[in-house]
Write a structure and sequence with these properties.
By secondary structure, the protein is an alpha/beta fold. The protein has 8 helices and 28 strands. Helices cover about 20% and strands about 30% of the residues. It has a 6-stranded mixed beta sheet with strand order 7-4-6-5-9-8, with no helix packed on it. Strands 16-13-17-21-20-18 form a 6-stranded mixed beta sheet, sandwiched between helices. A hairpin with a 2-residue loop joins strand 24 and strand 25. The two termini are about 40 Å apart. The structure holds adenosine monophosphate and magnesium ion (MG).
Length: about 425
């Protein structure tokens, strides 16, 4: 049995970087940059007005009130041919180039427009006021995005801004998903006696997709060697094979045996983790990563979260492959006995004092209904059996941390 941190290190060390491909920038949402991106322009490309107002010479309004003669208008997208001379001003719009001669902009709201094409300026305007000087955000050649970052909407905006229309990104990992178990029926069926619906096949596919992978669902194998061998053989042709079930101590837990038959090198087969102790991790003969995830739905989800997500991030070329733990204050005690590190479902809310963490009432590693109410995993460390209310707890935010924000105000997620 090895620790969570050791397991994570082994997984990451064995996750290969995938090739790089070039794609249109519009297709890069969620993809991982494989190159530094430099600006091909100064940003802004010209001295730019930040407001609607009047371009003027700051020296002309050192004494106020001052009256200035209007000599022109500049809209966004125009290139003014005229100059602003002594005693003169020009009306400018937000985003317009500052006409030559002017060194500051006074906001339109603070100026009185007189009937004879003059303005009255009532207060001093400092040199450079409301002017975004050329290159203040970035200069030509300066790196604006770094390799190893996952692109979001703002990243796409930067790519557009610097004209980077073809972008080198890490290839998306190809992930195969299969569930194992004699008891499993399809979600569309009503389970007969002793049977249950397969949920892991679908949650794993969804987790892998949201982690950036492209997913092939291989279906369900029953608990015999040949049936499992059939999905393993197909699965090993992918970058990653995820199997659920069949990795604990039962008579019909055959996944590890079958993996050995296919010359998968098993690197992990027990982790000091709760839930998720029987996790199997290995590397196939052609380099595929294989995860045998324990079948209890919460164990499946947690082990994906802790290990598979990081492996996928590394393969795609992410610089940072694990989520940072957040620190929150427990609103109620949290316990998990024994020496294994526990990751329990929790509900994070933002309070004026910082993050608060409320344990979600759960019946354990099969209780996917309780788990679905969590937006974070709360950690009970190896050396603790119980954390008291009011004490700090490490929290691993889940994907839904942001899309359950409509419920942030609720201390009790069950409500
Ligand atoms: P196993 O890891 O195969 O021993 O399964 C542990 C528990 O998880 C058992 O109660 C199984 O019925 C349940 N389980 C296994 N696979 C799935 C699945 N795909 N969907 C939902 N529950 C599952
Ligand atoms: Mg099973």
């Amino acid at each position: 049995v090895i620790s969570v941190d050791e397991t994570l290190a082994i997984v990451i060390e064995n996750a290969p970087r995938l090739e790089i491909e070039e794609v249109d920038f519009e297709q890069t949402l969620g993809r991982v940059l494989a190159e530094d991106v430099a600006s091909d322009l100064d940003l802004p490309p010209f001295d730019r007005s930040s407001v609607d107002g009047f371009a003027l010479r700051s020296r002309d309004v050192e004494r106020v009130p001052a009256w200035l003669r209007l000599v022109g208008t500049v809209g966004a997208g125009e290139a003014p041919a005229f100059e602003v001379g002594e005693g003169e001003a020009a009306q400018v719009m937000t985003g317009a180039p500052v006409p030559r001669g002017a060194d500051a902009i006074e906001m339109v709201e603070r100026v009185t427009l007189l009937p004879d094409f003059r303005i009255e300026v009532k207060e001093n305007v400092a040199r450079g006021q409301n002017v975004a000087p050329r290159g203040q955000e970035a200069t030509t050649g300066q790196a604006v995005l770094r390799a190893g970052t996952r692109l979001d909407a703002a990243g796409l905006a930067v790519l557009a801004t610097v004209g980077k229309v073809r972008v080198r990104v890490g290839r998306q990992p190809k992930v195969a998903v299969a569930a194992t178990g004699n008891e499993l029926v399809a979600p569309s069926e009503k389970p007969g006696p002793g049977r249950i619906r397969n949920s892991n096949g679908f949650s794993l596919a969804a987790q892998a997709r949201s982690a950036g992978a492209s997913v092939t669902y291989l279906g369900v194998a029953v608990d015999d060697q040949d049936s499992i061998a059939e999905v393993v053989q197909r699965g090993l042709r992918h970058d990653v094979l995820l199997l659920s079930g069949g990795v604990s101590m039962g008579l019909l837990d055959l996944v590890e045996d079958v993996l050995l038959r296919f010359d998968v090198k098993i690197l992990v087969n027990a982790v000091a983790l709760k839930p998720g102790k029987p996790l199997v991790f290995g590397v196939g003969p052609a380099g595929a990563l294989v995860f045998g995830l324990p079948g209890n739905p919460v164990s499946t989800a947690v082990t994906f979260e802790l290990f598979v997500r990081s492996a996928l991030a590394r393969m795609e070329g992410c610089e940072r492959v694990t989520r940072p733990y957040l620190t929150a204050t427990l609103t109620a005690p949290l316990s998990s006995k024994g020496p294994r590190r526990a990751y329990l479902p929790g509900w994070l809310t933002a309070s004026p004092q910082g993050l608060a963490a409320t344990p979600v009432a759960t019946r354990g590693s099969a209780d996917i209904v309780a788990f679905s109410k969590a937006n974070a995993l709360l950690v009970v460390p190896e050396e603790h059996d119980r954390l008291e209310a009011g004490s700090p707890v490490a929290a691993w935010p889940l994907d839904n941390f942001f899309f359950k924000e409509d419920r942030w105000a609720l201390a009790d997620p069950v409500g």
